[in-house]
Amino acid sequence: MPGLLVSTTVNGDAIEFVCPQDETLLDSLRDRVGLTGVKEGCGTGDCGACSITLDGRLVCSCLVLGAEANGREIETVEGLADGDKLHPLQDKFIEYAALQCGICTPGFLIAAKALLDRNPNPTVEEIRYGLAGNLCRCTGYDKIVRAVQAAAKQMRKK
Amino acid sequence: MRFESPKTTREAVALLAKEKGSAYVLAGGTDLLVRMKTGLIEPDLVVDIKRISAMQSIKTTASGTRIGAAVSGAELGENKKLKKAWPGVVEATNLIGSDQIQGRCTMVGNLCNASPAADSVPALMAARAKAVVVGKNKRRTVAVEKIITGPGETSLAKGEIIEAIILPRRSTKSGDAFLRFIPRTEMDIAVVSAGISLTLARGVIKSARVALGAVAATPLLVPAAARAIIGTKLDDVALEKLAAACSAACKPIDDKRGTIEYRTKVVGVLACRAAKIAYQRAGDA
């Protein structure tokens, strides 16, 4: 079966890639577009390490086919910072040491951004529910929740 | 594997009917891609239905609300009108997985995956929902409880596809609710679940539907449980009868999530709690 040509927008840039028809968007982004910020944890939609937004919706890229991305808009962790200026979530994750090994971090950042876009002032409970689809196996969640609260506070000031 | 993303239901049906190998419909992909990844299935054809306009919208008409098969859980949850009209159905669908899963998962996918523990299905059964089934030469409307025939098995023929779910219009004095029991608060599969829809007349339950999940090979519609509360104001005696009817109807398995004894007991407790919420909603409506 021949590969498919997929034309899509990634972090605002028009991108084309050719992928096998059964390839996941996670693999397409990592291996064809070169965006290795998208991580594979479980590969079955449980851990959220591969979180991206697809047409503005938070999804697990391991549960999307590369072929489905044709004509859609994708945002990954690589698009969060504005040049050298980190996104407030990235700043606060560093400040609060909300990461250890870092594998889950891009997914947490993308999921937290999706949460704050929808709800700029979430309660701790809302943050914990909002990030329930992201697993971290080293820091625990407390620092992550604090970092998201701090980033939300900073973002509300703008 | 061949990937197709047709623009019409007719085209999708033709593709599925023509395929000689194994053909699968891709809605949200939250079950299908997991089965592909774990090697349970090796599709020859995958038909993405998300670019079919008849499957993308939520429309309310005089006879009810039509929800397209490609509408995601997140979209359902954002639809205020639907949330007000059928809170139990929306809550049940929104319980499926994380925010990431909600961005993709669909009610029809949940139905066609045919898990005994499917979250949205008991709520749909209680709501008297119907599925619009489209085949090569005909279109039929089928009660949701006729779709699942066993774990992972449906009554759909080769080439048939569900285009939409229809929720009927109902009296304003109606309410529905869905509750799921899991040992944690998020990201788990139901140990038991219960969906109830009811309509009141002067505080008395005029009609009701009770459906249970994860307590048999398929989600169960339990008419005896509905009869236990019809004609009552949901007093303690009615609730006791409701719990007993639910426990009597279930045929659960023993597994790591719960024992037969536990599920049989808890399903009655959940049904009573769901009934109280539905009753209150119907009164407030």
Outline the structure in words:
- The complex is a heterodimer of chains A (158) and B (285).
- Chain A is of the alpha+beta class.
- Chain A has helices at 25-32, 88-95, 105-118, 124-130, 142-157, and strands at residues 4-10, 13-19, 51-54, 57-60, 73-75.
- Chain A has 2 domains: 4-78, Roll (Ubiquitin-like (UB roll)), CATH 3.10.20; 88-157, DNA polymerase, domain 1 (Orthogonal Bundle).
- By secondary structure, chain B is an alpha+beta fold.
- Among the domains of chain B are: 1-49, Uridine Diphospho-n-acetylenolpyruvylglucosamine Reductase, domain 2, CATH 3.30.43.10; 174-284, 2-Layer Sandwich (Enolase-like, domain 1).
- Helices cover 35% and strands 26% of the residues of chain B.
- The model of chain B has no long low-confidence stretch (mean pLDDT 96).
- The chains are: A alpha+beta (158), B alpha+beta (285).
- Chain A binds chain B through residues 1, 4, 20-22, 24, 43-46, 48, 51, 54, 57-60, 62-65, 67-68, 70, 111, 114-115, 129-130, 132-134, and chain B through 1-3, 5, 26, 28-30, 33-34, 36-38, 43, 46, 48, 50, 72, 74, 97-101, 103-104, 185-187.
